[in-house]
Amino acid sequence: MREPLYRKIFDAPTLLREQPPKFRHPHKAALFDIAYPDGRSAPSEIEVTRWAQHVPDSVLLPPALATDIRPDFYDYRPMGDVGTPVEWHVNFADPRLFAAYGSALFAQDEMQVAEHPLLGSVREALLAEGLAAKTSDETGATPILVRNVERRIVVATDANAAAGRPVGLYGNRFAAAPLDVVRRATRRVEPPTFSNIIAMAAPSGGRGDYTEREIEYVFATAYTAFEAAVQESATTGGLQAIIHSGFWGCGAFGGNRRLMVALQTLAARAANVRRLVLHAGDSAGADEAARGLDVADSLAQRCGSTCTLHTIVSRSVMLAYHWGVSDGN
């Protein structure tokens, strides 16, 4: 069993009181006021672990992985699988954990923190203790898992002209919207639900065809994070892990959707994830995700049931997938 770089357990009410989130934009402060009108959180404990990059010399690729493709975004509703496995949702993280949560930005990372405000408190507490709040560093990927954090609000980001958001609220449109529109798009989750978060950073700034180094980083990051989630899930009565993800690294970073889905799928298979749920946004995204699963199956057939990281990387490079462009968010 692997040990994390650190493990911290925070009492949620104490965490909120001693390390409240810090906001640099009034819209974010307004969301927090809706989430916590009395400034108090539900009694609970939040567990935070940080993991060093780890990929064994060879990995086993089981013949199949249960996968779901959904033309939607995270709703955090339990899957209801037999045996009540632990469900995790990937945070499309910056290398600096939740670094922009208080800013005007409202892409996937910042939206997730806005709906789970204590993630901002987690960042502040780690920094206050002198711990590295980083999902990657000079050693490679260092994903951070946050377990049992309450979801206090839901923010509707879809386009709705009648509600005053004709182009939606996602990304840079959030800060451009009037504050009253943002407030009307937000509702409290009462009673709050609880989520488990995997914060892992995708590569950025690539151009042309993916290089071996870039592909290796993607697979190693996903494998490290997913294996940690499987291990942490097993500490709760031997339960298995369900991972919710999507087009990780394919928004602002311009990653290739099919390749990023394929590499996450292979990493999930190698890490013995019970089920991978891909939230693709819409029907067109669902088609792209399905093609990504086809790529994963093809790579698995070429690699064999037992393969090395080098084999996965070299086979992926041969497909000559290339970087896209940033969506501006």
How would you briefly describe this protein structure?
The chain is α/β, with parallel strands linked by helices and 329 residues long. 35% of the residues lie in helices and 22% in strands. It has a single domain, classed as Leucine Aminopeptidase, subunit E, domain 1 (3-Layer(aba) Sandwich), CATH 3.40.220.
Overview of the molecule:
Helix content is 35%, strand content 22%. It is built from ten helices and twelve strands. An eight-stranded mixed β-sheet has the order 1-2-8-9-5-10-11-4, sandwiched between helices. Strands 3-12 form a two-stranded antiparallel ribbon. Strands 6-7 form a two-stranded antiparallel sheet.
Mean pLDDT across every amino acid position: 93
The total domain count is: 1
| Helix content range | 25-40%
Q: How many helices does DSSP assign? A: 10
Poorly predicted parts: none
Overall 3D form: globular
CATH superfamily: Leucine Aminopeptidase, subunit E, domain 1
Q: Which CATH first-tier class would you pick?
A: Alpha Beta
Largest sheet: 8 strands, mixed
Task: Estimate the strand proportion.
Answer: 15-25%
Structural classification: alpha/beta
GO biological process, one term: regulation of DNA repair
GO molecular function, one term: poly(ADP-ribose) glycohydrolase activity
Protein name: PARG catalytic Macro domain-containing protein
Domain PARG catalytic Macro: 194-277
